[in-house]
Each structure stands twice: as C-alpha cells, then as structure tokens.
Amino acid sequence: QVQLVESGGGLVQAGDSLRLSCAASGPTFSTHNIGWFRQAPGKEREFVAAIGWSGGNPYYVDSVKGRFTISRDNAKNTVYLQMNSLKPEDTAVYYCAAETTPTEYDYWGQGTQVTVSS
C-alpha cells in the first residue's frame, strides 16, 4: 500500500517555473515506478512523465520534453516534477501515481492545481 500527496502547484505566468512534489508513505514506495499525470478542464487525463523505481529510465510525453524533469529521492520518499518554461496549455490538475503492474497505476494522490496565465 502506498499513499501519495502532491504539493507545489500554484498560479504562475507563462515562462515561469514550478516544482511539484509527490510525497509517499508506505514501505514499498521505493519499489514502484512513479508517474505524473495531468487533467485539464474538459479533457481526459494524460500521461506526463514517469521514472523507474531506482531513479532511472525517465520518460516524457512529447509536449513537455526539454521543459519538464522528473526525479526521485527514495531516502525522502519523494518524487519531483520540475517544470520550466511553463505554457498556458500546461494548466491542469497534476497527479502522481504509483505503478503496480506494467502500465497499471493503482495508487493515486489527490492532485495539485497548476495554472499558467498568458
């Protein structure tokens, strides 16, 4: 069992940066790949980035490549999403989730709102 809590969202202007945090509790956090997802109003939830359990193999959706960086600190039970050069289209509720089987994310946080004004 893993409990996840996101933080770090806010209202920023286009071009600004934010760092989201996903703090986890539970003894198995360091064994899970972790993903970030987002959902904009009226749109389906979409994958943003993911990272392997050991911190390797980060990968991203094309729209954020070169702007977002995912990382993790297993000693702190935390995964981060550094978001630079933010655009209005990045506005969404951002969620972190723990992968339990390949491509299946069964543990989710409550989300944190990111709003980027133009």
Provide a brief overview of the structure.
With 118 residues, the protein is an all-beta fold. It has strands at 3-7, 10-13, 18-25, 34-39, 46-51, 59-60, 68-73, 78-83, 92-101, 104-108, 112-117. The mean pLDDT is 95.
Rg over C-alpha atoms, rounded to the nearest angstrom? 13 Å
The general outline is globular
The biggest sheet amounts to:
7 strands, mixed
Strand content: over 45%
Helix percentage range: under 10%
Number of helices: 0
The parts where pLDDT drops under 50 for at least 5 residues are none
Structure classification = mainly beta
Mean pLDDT: 95
- What is the succession of H and E elements? EEEEEEEEEEE
Distance between the termini: 40 Å
Strand segment count: 11
Description:
This protein has 118 residues and is mainly beta. The chain contains no helices and eleven strands. It has strands at 3-7, 10-13, 18-25, 34-39, 46-51, 59-60, 68-73, 78-83, 92-101, 104-108, 112-117. The strands form two sheets. Strands 2, 4, 5, 6, 9, 10 and 11 form a seven-stranded mixed β-sheet that branches. A hairpin with a 2-residue loop joins strand 9 and strand 10. It is globular and about 40 Å long. The model has no long low-confidence stretch (mean pLDDT 95).
Layout of helices and strands:
Layout: E1 3-7, E2 10-13, E3 18-25, E4 34-39, E5 46-51, E6 59-60, E7 68-73, E8 78-83, E9 92-101, E10 104-108, E11 112-117
Parallel strand pairs: 2-11
Antiparallel strand pairs: 1-3, 3-8, 4-5, 4-9, 5-6, 7-8, 9-10, 9-11
